[in-house]
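Hi support team,

I'm filing this because I wasn't sure whether my run with S-adenosylmethionine finished correctly. The job status page said complete, but I'd like someone to confirm that the output block is well-formed before I use it downstream. Pasting the exact inputs I used:
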Amino acid sequence: MTPHYSDERTTLYQGDALAALRNLPDASVDAVITDPPYSSGGQYRGDRSASTGSKYLRSEVHTQQDFTGDNRDQRSFGYWCALWLGECHRIARPGSLIAVATDWRQLPTVTDAIQAGGWVWRGIAAWAKPNARPQQGRPAAACEFYVWGTAGARPLEGETLPGFWHVSPLRGADRMHQTEKPVAVLRDLVRAAPVDGVVLDPFAGSGTTGLAALREGRRFIGIELSHHYAELAARRLAGIQPRQVDTQTDLFDVARIA
Ligand SMILES: C[S@@+](CC[C@H](N)C(=O)[O-])C[C@H]1O[C@@H](n2cnc3c(N)ncnc32)[C@H](O)[C@@H]1O
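And here is everything the job wrote out:
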């Protein structure tokens, strides 16, 4: 499969994750950090087949393009996840870490699916959003989660990583993708791979995992189905050098290509 974009440290494919993953060699990446379409946002078929913008950005004016692949019911979502998670397990070196983003509705399905894919499920890290919408008479749905596990045994060595984050998502026009994750969260997670190791994200979206990996001195392989988002990710990742920066500077990169 010909990359949509490549340079010395980045390879980005535009296409279906499962098809692209099947072309990657065994034991060739050091961490899988990803954010698949959640297929969440409702109980009924009508809810699930709604546009991603109306599901995930209900209260905001937004200009980011909708994305596909987000309308499976819970059972078929779990089955599909097990397929690509199994491919990721084959591609990961023994001991590699995987972290898969999800929300409260799909949390039980994702913990099942990573095990069905061959990974050892080891925990859940939480991303708490300080600006989550309050709900009368009940807790705000303030958290998204990273279900994490390993490809077999993983030695207790290396850097310690946080188990939760308290970071606001980008709002409105600052965002390049409807479900963009904060660079600060990803910069922590990608450090599960060694320096110069390879981080894989089969649902790359606007390339946030890639940006974090390159900033942290790791290499990156991304896959993205949408031509629009693959192109956006390619532009975002071109020429990124490792450097120590804070979130403000990461925001600068968003402004730079908007
Ligand atoms: C939740 S978003 C990822 C957003 C990303 N974390 C970011 O910060 O920009 C999931 C992405 O997966 C892509 N996608 C959906 N189905 C796919 C498939 N079968 N193969 C590869 N990418 C797919 C969508 O186009 C969407 O951009």
